[in-house]
Amino acid sequence: MITIITATSLSKFLACQRAYYYRHELRLNAIETAEALSFGRAFHAAMESRNKGMTCEQALAEGMIHIAGNEQAAATLSGLVYGYFARYKDDPPIETRSEIQFSHKIGKNGFRAAGVIDGLAQNSAGEFVLLEYKTTSQSVDPSSDYWARLRSNLQVNMYVDACLAHGIEVSKVIYDVTKKPSIRPRQEETLEAYALRLREDCEKRPEFYFARREVTILHDDLHAFRTMRKEACYQIVSLRHRSRRTGRVCSPWLCCGQQQTCNFCEYNSFCLYGAEASTQNIPSGFYLGERNPELKQNSNI
After folding, report:
1. I want to staple 29 with a disulfide (CB 3.0 to 4.6 A). Which of 44, 201, 289, 292 is the partner?
2. Count of domains in the chain?
3. Secondary element (H or E) of residue 50
């Protein structure tokens, strides 16, 4: 049995084993996509379109595809995209190879690392660097500890490891970070007016909303990531064996029980109340789908 480990599945396992089991072992998918995830995809699509030379209006249209029907999210996306284009109007788009798929063997237990790299570029020194677009609700001020946490970002370390596995020397990451707005539509304010107000706020305070930083990937950080991923794979194998020996299949996969994690978990509607899901008992609002729907069939590095 080949098990695919992506940045998403590994993050899920580290956050909550039970959520990992439901999502990547049972293949339980929520019918409705989480709003935050949809917005991140929409903004990322707009940024990729900018790098392809599209105008602001064209890039915004590409982003809107991912949040069709959510009018407030569309207004927020509009304000941020126009603000982003204004902030970097004098900076040419970063030329990248985008949506680079990878797959390579890890360990000896039938595991493979796989994923899709946002962008691979070359800096002014001719070095290969990863380009990562991030949206965050945290401060992007230079003194924010947000930047320190990015140094050990699981997803980026996985991408660097993949590049090295395929013979591409990468040791740096350009983080292009956009802060999500804290302002919301006012009472009786139209969404068009809100989008314009957000756009104007972005143009008045660009440093509050947008920041870029080049971060070096340290060898020790990459080594720590590889060790952590290997140990997670060993634990997954062990949990599978224990599941086969128990009548309650999900019981070995421990629920984290942490408020911050559970509040935003897609499975909290039944898991928090002690209910279980199985192939014969699929909760309302879910279906059995792909384990890793973000992956495509063929890898190109």
Report:
1. 289
2. 1
3. helix 35-51
